[in-house]
Amino acid sequence: MTIPAVIFDHVSKVYSLSHTKTENFKDRLTRMLKGGAAPAAAYQQEEDFYALRDVSFEIKPGESVGIIGPNGSGKSTSLKILAGVTKPSSGRFEIHGRLGALIEVGAGFHPELTGRENVYMNGSILGMSKKEINRKFDSIVDFSEIEQFIDTPVKHYSSGMYVRLGFAVAIHNEPEIMLVDEALAVGDLGFQNKCFARMEALKNEGRTFILVSHSMGQIQEMCDRAIMLNKGELIADEKSIDVAAKYIDLMAAPGQRTSNSLEDSGKEANLAITNLGLAATGDDALVQVPIGAKLAVRIDYEAKEAVEGARVVVNVLRMGVPVYRINSGIQGVAIPPLAGKGQVLCMLPDLALFPNRYGLDVLIWDAKQSTILARKAIRDSFTVMRPEELSILGCGCPIEPAERSFIYGHAQWEHVPNAAP
């Protein structure tokens, strides 16, 4: 029987929050007007806050797992417990294998020491011997791309330089289990790609990865499985593609929307999108179409007052991310006044998308595209399928393929035999 690389067994983390209760100005004014007695002395009020509440999961050796969830859901707390930075209030956890962690920018660095000195100190903290650090030092500096500043105290480093050096040391520890928090978000795009390429190589060698990220693209690219936390509780533990969809649904729920969300923006408008779908499918919520299909998006609306110069934006979504966008205003297409009940058709020619499920997100803006008048979205609106899949489709929909791209590209190919280098 294979021993799990990570065991999280009914783990809870509780913080005690102190609040000082004092008389505010309103209370004081009310008391004075009523001729009341002197105010009571200030007192401390204690409150328990559960960063994690009874969370359990196991991760097998060689598995790549993402941890996702809204801000404050307990993601970073979970990684800090696994890294030994903090202890759980109850429950237990086990780590079986050499651990490498990048959970905070420059965690473990001393600001007064140089980059060189911090490499040795941080490497020692991670369990590397001096001989091992000596052997890997040039490679660490080369990966971090900060050779010019390696003998400069790190207090003068930018956040990007911190994360470069911190990740370089952690990855050269040759960990069997790697913990990565959102720290890579501060690096530039080129360095992020370099880091993920290195992690992909280690993943292919059978290393275990635990990645915290708000990027569903990164989670699906790097992780086979994902765990979703919300308010300290585990609410999903499945294939990364399925958990990413649940995360998007959660963030679209009324309790998670921000005040400037698109759907909130059109609340008081006199215009509403009453129905949204593909013109050829009636009211079906999910349809199957072949690669390269010409789609017609049907937008039914109802306007209490006439809307002049409206701009219509159609987004085709994959996991909540727009992968194809059409904007009538940018195209220079004048939409006739929207009045009463009507319909707008948007024809999408040769939609070259890989087989997968896609959604629609339609927004109607005012003439200046400064205010959203109406919006409607359907996460699973249609499924792009290969022609051979369509021909054998009886009913229902097959399991979606794990394509790692969106656009089904077309190119001209030529073979030149015995070509000179």
Keywords:
421 residues; alpha/beta; Rossmann fold; Coagulation Factor XIII, Chain A, domain 1; 6-stranded mixed β-sheet; 5-stranded mixed β-sheet; 11 helices; 17 strands; 34% strand; globular
Describe the 3D structure.
With 421 residues, the protein is α/β, with parallel strands linked by helices. It has 2 domains: 6-21 and 44-254, Rossmann fold; 265-392, Coagulation Factor XIII, Chain A, domain 1 (Distorted Sandwich). Helix content is 26%, strand content 34%. It is built from 11 helices and 17 strands. The strands form 4 sheets. It has a 6-stranded mixed β-sheet, with helices on both faces. α3 crosses α4 and α3 crosses α5 (159-172). The longest helix is centred in the middle third of the chain and has 16 residues, at 189-204. The relative contact order is 0.11. Residues 254-268 and 391-402 have low confidence and may be disordered.
Morphology:
globular
Fraction of residues in H or I helices = 25-40%
Q: What is the CATH architecture term of the largest domain?
A: 3-Layer(aba) Sandwich
| Helix-strand topology string | EHEEHEEHHHEHEHEEHHEEEEEHEEEH
CATH homologous superfamily grouping of the largest domain: P-loop containing nucleotide triphosphate hydrolases
Radius of gyration: 27 Å
Main CATH class of the largest domain: Alpha Beta
Distance between the termini: 52 Å
